[in-house]
Amino acid sequence: MNESASNYLNALNIQQKEAILHSEGPLLILAGAGSGKTKVLTTRVAQLIKDKKCFGNQILCVTFTNKAANEMRERVLKLTNNKSNSIPWLGTFHSISNKILRKHAEAVGLKPSFTILDTLDQLKLIKNILAAENIDIKKNPPKLIAYLIDHWKNKALLPANVKINSSDYSKINALKIYKIYQERLRLMNCVDFGDLILHCVTIFKNFKEIQESFKKNFKYILVDEYQDTNYVQNLWLNLITNDSKNICVVGDDDQSIYSWRGAEVKNILEFEKNFTNTKIVKLEQNYRSTKNIINTASSLISNNDDRLGKKIWSDLKDGDKVRVNSFSDGRDEATGISDIIEKELIKYFSLNDIAILVRAAFQTREFEERFIKIGLPYRVIGGMKFYERAEIKDALCYLRLIQQKNDDLAFERIINNPKRSIGDSTLKKLHDLSRTRNKNLFETADEILNEDELKPKTKESLKQFIKLVKTWTKLSEQLDHVQLLERVLDESGYTQMLINEKSPEAEARLENLKELRASMKNYSNLVEFLENISLQTSIDEEWEGEKINLMTIHAAKGLEFNCVFLPGWEEGLFPHQKSIEEKGDQAVQEERRLAYVALTRAKQRLFISFANNRKYYGNNNSNDWMPSMPSRFIDELDKQYLEINETAKDNDQDFEFSQDFNFMEEKKSPGWKRYLQEKEKIKTINYTNNLTNFKIGQGVEHETFGKGKVIHIDGNKLLINFKDSGEKKVIDKYLKQFDHE
DNA sequence: TAACAACGCTTTTTT
DNA sequence: AGCGTTGTTA
Q1: CA-to-C1' span, A409 to B4 (A)
Q2: Which residues 222 to 261 of A reach strand B, CB within 7 A?
Q3: Nearest nucleotide to A620 by CA–C1' distance?
Q4: Is the CB of A552 under 7 A from strand B?
Q5: Is A613 within 8 Å of A570 (Cβ atoms)?
Q6: What is this structure's pTM?
Q7: What CA–CA distance (Å, rounded) separates A18 from A586?
Q8: Range with the lowest mean pLDDT among A26-40, A265-279, A327-341, A377-391?
Q9: C9 C1' – A569 CA distance, angstroms?
């Protein structure tokens, strides 16, 4: 062992060392939140290479997200001083499967240049099939069918293997669609996310020599976030694991939050039954959070059953108590949190150290509005995916069609975009003809230019389009992919269409297309670009700059922040109503694990909050407030680690968070009465707030911005011209009168 | 065919 | 409030 290797081993605790040095045979690492599991995994990989147990390309290392994979790659390379291509098989299940499938596409009847469809393409395809089969779209919602297909794939079930035991019509229809769907995918040379993995499994099962070559190559296997693997992923792993059984999985049953995607905690619970002589290592020391945070999180998760029973502990200081705040409504919550950030945190922490983690994506909106208003920079992580934007998809579909004429979905998307007077009726005709002639849409369109199927005007328009695509196809052999895109956007009239629009949105779209061009330069040719773009979540999430982080709890998995805000801890939102309706107590337990993940993201400061009223669906009528109750999870937190602030409820000293949950039925319950009282009070507050006492031209003073003058009034929001900090919008309650000379 | 109004549904979480 | 689907009109 060389010097630097022993150095980095010294920085580890006993269990961590144990996990790293136990290189042979099955190993299960139960790693609590913040227990240094990434460190263990990266060090383990580095150690295998340094000890010459194998080459970097003989290690299969599977992570859950691209972000995690990139981070691991960086850290391993740092430890081994190696080149970036030295661990080629480090990636997500999907990206590794993609790589395998490109090599062996023919084994499942595909060409290596297959396209990966995203969720929207999938849905569109299902809709098309439903239309062609004359199946009622209302009785058979495409989304439900997509969901069922996904579930079957997660269970490794091809159409022929699906068993439906009841006379469940929606499932019978869905299965029928599934069959056609798979045929269509093959004809278009496309796969969906689920196929990436399932096709690999099929190949491993049907082609022993291919399976053997991988089994032989992968001397060591490592799997991160094992608690979130589903049946087909686990099967995939088993098929690729060789007789030496050098498989090391890392997971935390308390952090299993993807059962809705087919994840089976069973995999981690039964790992030792599957592999005899499994070595189990528990990492229980938390290096991330203060004692108060860890103890709060532990008290919550202890309410779950069926745990493997880790006891995580922290050696760090107690730290501040976890704060629980109550607000009158969602907007108030956003205001309150931004106040805490400005008044308490900004002095000690970078904005990058601050995160707001929400249960559902729509919750970020109120915070965005607030931050825009007061001028605090923020970033939303994992929001709109770059390649999902309409203009990007349009551009990609042009390229997809150029590269692969049988991509009907691409054809359909761009045929009338920009408008070419080729509308629904023409498209319907094309679809029908293509089905009877057994040709793809492009071929069919090309063919009927010589026939009398279409009106002359439509025919001419279609002719122009076909001609353009053919020209681009020829050009694609001479030009590089970036130049090709430029030609396409130009000659198709797409750019001109956006320029003509003259709206800010159109300008943003043009900007996005520029960004697309820039990102294409990272790939050497069109095929390579198209092969990889679909698996890219977004074009390198910009982490640069000083910004507050906004994201869902799911997206925050694996991350940590000094200061964490957890808003919206209300019954119905968290735990979410839908999840409870679907799966009852099992779902509540998963929601609780999600809450546990949320709590354990925090290193130093943790703020939980709930609002007494929340508006859903962006309803602006003041009477459409949904009354909300504090989440049961707040009740489950051990109070000795909390500091509770009932800012919106100062009249009720012995207020308890646990209110009567079924208040709808029992309207005379104390909880209901209290709610009515609160509602009255909130109305009063809002009323007085809207009538501000300040007048335009008046001198005012603000705690942080100093002195200034009122220049505009909008309800209780005032635009102030501050002497030192310029124009800012503030709410009147933060202003004092200041009579200037 | 395209442009526009009306309507109803939505929001759980994602590779 | 925002989107997609449906209906109406030029």
Answers
A1: 27
A2: 257, 260-261
A3: C1
A4: yes
A5: no
A6: 0.84
A7: 34
A8: A377-391
A9: 49
Burial, A111: exposed, middle or buried (Cβ in 10 Å; 0-12, 13-18, 19+)? Answer: exposed
Q: What is the C-alpha separation between A404 and A469, in angstroms, rounded?
A: 11
Nucleotides of strand C under 7 angstroms from a protein beta carbon: 1-2, 5-6
Amino acid letter, A39 = K
Q: Is A309 in a helix, a strand, or coil?
A: coil
Q: What is the pLDDT of residues A320-368, one digit of tens each?
A: 999 999 998 888 899 999 999 999 999 999 999 999 999 999 999 999 9
Tell me the pLDDT band of A544, cut-offs 50, 70 and 90.
Answer: confident
Q: For residue range A273-288, what is the model confidence (pLDDT) as tens digits?
A: 999 999 999 999 999 9
A258/A255 Cα distance (integer angstroms): 9
DSSP labels, A413-472: HHTTSS--S--HHHHHHHHHHHHHHT--HHHHHHHGGGSSSS-HHHHHHHHHHHHHHHHH
**What is the C-alpha to C-alpha distance for residues A259 and A592, in angstroms, rounded to an integer?**
13
Extract the tokens encoding A740. Answer: 């200037």
d(CA A532, CA A542): 19
- Residue A710: partners with Cβ closer than 8 Å, 6 or more residues away: A694, A695, A696, A697, A698, A700, A718, A719, A720
Residue A321: count other Cβ atoms within 10 Å of its Cβ.
Answer: 18
Residue type, A495: T
Separation of A413 CA and B2 C1' (Å): 17
**Residues of A designated as active site:** 37-38, 224-225, 255, 601
For residue A142, whether the previous peptide bond is cis, meaning omega lies within 30 degrees of 0, is no
